[in-house]
Amino acid sequence: MAQTTKNLKSDPYLKVPIPDVALPIPVEAMVEGLKKKGFHDGARWVGWKEKMSKKDLPTYFNRLANAVDQIIEEHKSLASSGSLAVNGDASPRQRLRWAFVAINKPYPGEPTVRKPEIVLLTCDERVSIKWSSMHAYCDSEAELNAVTLTGDFTKHIFNTQQNRRFVMNCSLKDDTIGLMYTDSSGCLVSGLYNVHEDVEDFIRIVVGLTLLEPQHLGYDTTLSIVEGTGEVIFGEGTTCKVLQKLDADFHLGSECTMCFEVEHPEKKGMTCLMSDAWVDEEKVDKEVDILRKLNALGVTNVPKVVASEIVHIGGHVDSTENFRSAVCIVGDEIRAEQAVRDEQDSASDGDGDADIAAGDEEENPGDFLLDASMPSKTNTGAEDSGNTKLHAVRNHHRILMEPFGKKLSEFRCLEEFILAVKDIISVIKQLHDNGYLNRDVSIFNIALAEQDEDAFQNAHRRLQGFLISFHHVLHLETEGPNVKTDLHPTGRLPFMVVDMLQHFLHKKAFAHNYWHDLESLFYVFCWVCTAYSGPGGERREIQDLRESHAFKWKVLGASVEDLKVAMDSKHSFTSEGRRFQRDMERDFHRYFAPIFDCVCQMRSCLFPPAFDEDGHKSSTTSMKELEGKEDAEAVRTFRKMHLKLPHEERNPEIVFEELFAVIDDAVEKLPEEHRLQNAKPLGTSLTYFSHIRLLQLFFRKQRHP
């Protein structure tokens, strides 16, 4: 433990996540009342068995909570007479109680069987037990450590509760209990407390959690939402209806994002996209800053910022730093008090020394420790505060953007699909021209939307491709060289580039560049052609995909094995032209046959062949002979040879021009039935969020077919 607390009835660190001010009466008063009612005999809790079963624990917790409710009512009566004080007003609080859940069955609508057996729920017969209704949980078997407790359990809560800022849970093993606090920055773990001896700490956890208001349980009180719909209070009081949840992306220790469709605050009848994200404050340029700069530069087919804010809760900036700073302050106070006691003890006589020794035996090892296994950074003030590591500080940001669009897979015809891909190539080019790299091109971050102007001046009105996520953008001018040897992963595994995968597997230095964004887009192109059987998001049956490369890329999982399988598949798929064509014709649905040649030519543009030194020298010599010639055949030969050069030696303008030409040629050759003038309007499709969940299940590796 980094710090201990001496001769204290309770651990002051626990008062940070569950403060007395957030409870109707102080925990000390609860314990005093429980002792008077005979629940604790001075040595142990009455009725606490030597071996409490999992079913016994929530029953006992609730007995204590019910008794504390009576004690609170007694205090209210005395408060009305002026003899005692009660925190807050007299309005009724939500009633929360612990419940036992059978562990061998999944929650309704959830595929995951493993779940906590003791959960904290609202006392309402209409509330069913599921991840989205869970306020907190208790693990009665696990040791108190981040790896065990914050894996699937906490991730499920964050992903199903769209307005969750942090999650608290406890671990109870035999007669020892502890608390864990988890947010997007990582985990903090309390000390371990004996349930019979550390009575205030025990009651603060198991009863205190039942008495907390939503804000103190970790809910965002500015976002009132159930099952993806509700309302959000934006800025200085503007209220917008939330129509649907679109995407959830929670990863412990990294930036977490929720996306929603909301009513446009200014344009009646219109909707826009709301991004609700926890953003690393060390970032030089936040997503909203990047978007505003791109909007000012006139970059097309990226979202326009309607409004943005840093969320405030209880009058304060909603930041993961708040809790950590409070923990450090408590540590400072403990050390200051201990220094005074030590000074007094050093001046005392021998009897005093004996008292010190006796006191040392009663140390309470309570402390919130930053979990070293989670991503963290050294803080310059850490030594002064008693902590050697602090997690990255993340603030709660919210952005409203327009236009709101459809999924890329909801294209109406092949012409609309490949022109949308051309739109994204254009965005990547515009970003590169202005010194930006997106680093997160995926099917989840591309949308189809209408806009008045068409950069490619197509004769028919169409849904255009928009690149909608800029969380991981790198601005080379402000953030310096992009060569890294130790990178945090960016992008989704199915669309992660081979160089990035090699970096993680083989610790190879990696420098993200524009061609990596194009490579990710190519995987998106192949993904759609593999997973779908036509316009409007028509999906294929999973049995038709088991042998495909896209099936091996997967959506879920990021183990070393997953990374290696994805890397080998992508390298095999793209490295050689004839093999690529063979695998493409096997994997892609026949609906996309009219653009097979287009995909092959795109592969040739994006994946240069491996050259030995002599081959490279011969190629560059031939190119020099052709350089400057203006006849069409010489220009064409020069460009084809240029695309065989390594990425670092290529002229980006030629790469983008060739990609545009490949798509334009494919559009010209499309049969009439695949053109925009013959596209039929499509009916209502699945929500975006449902689409993502189905994709995740769709491409999950089937270990037992």
TrEMBL record:
It comes from the Eukaryota. Residues 151-529 form the Fungal-type protein kinase domain. InterPro entries: Kinase-like_dom_sf (IPR011009), Pkinase_fungal (IPR040976). Residues 345-365 have a biased composition (Acidic residues). Residues 375-388 have a biased composition (Polar residues). Residues 338-389 are annotated as: Disordered. This is Fungal-type protein kinase domain-containing protein. It comes from Schizopora paradoxa. The lineage of its organism: Eukaryota, Fungi, Dikarya, Basidiomycota, Agaricomycotina.
